Amino acid sequence: MAGLVQALWATGLDTIECCEDTGDFYALGGAALSPAERFRRATYFDGFAYLGMPTPDLQLLLGIAHDLRDAQWAAASVLEPTGLRPESVLYFPADRIDELAELLARRSAPTPAQH
After folding, report:
1. For residues 85 and 33, what is the distance between their CA atoms, to the nearest angstrom?
2. Would you say 57 and 14 are in contact if contact means Cβ atoms under 8 Å apart?
3. What is the Cα gyration radius of the chain?
4. Which domain of life is it from (predicted)?
5. How would you list the strands of the sheet with 48-54, edge to edge?
6. Which residues of the chain have pLDDT under 50?
7. Which pLDDT value is given to residue 110?
8. Strand partners, 51
């Protein structure tokens, strides 16, 4: 996940938080939830990575990663009484972390004319 975060930053996108195995995060008690709710979330998010980003940056990432995305990718924003929160989250298969990092690295790599 560190390589992906570095690639996001090199592309000019900001991150807020991340987790390379969201299922393990919940299974190991990474949230103040009841044991039953931790188990439910651990099972549901097994095999998924998580990125929290400013909403405009996540929108850009979704466009960049268009060809990698499938039905398993899910982005969400939280709606408060005052409006949308400024950050959004992305859940995606953890086995796509390296592929996404490589896509971003190719995008941010200088071309020969930029040297």
Report:
1. 22
2. yes
3. 16
4. Bacteria
5. 17-19, 48-54, 83-93, 74-80
6. 115
7. 63
8. 18, 90
Q: Tell me, what amino acid is at 59?
A: Q
In whole angstroms, what is the distance from residue 74 CA to residue 53 CA? 13
Q: How far apart are CA 65 and CA 103, in angstroms?
A: 8
**Selection from 49, 59, 24 nearest residue 99 by Cα:** 49
> For strand 17-19 and strand 74-80, is the pairing parallel, antiparallel, or unpaired?
unpaired
Place of tokens 């195995």: 21
Query: Which tokens hold the place of 56?
Result: 């405009």
- Phi/psi-derived region of residue 12, left when phi > 0, alpha when psi is between -120 and 50, beta in every other case: left
**pTM (2 d.p.):** 0.86
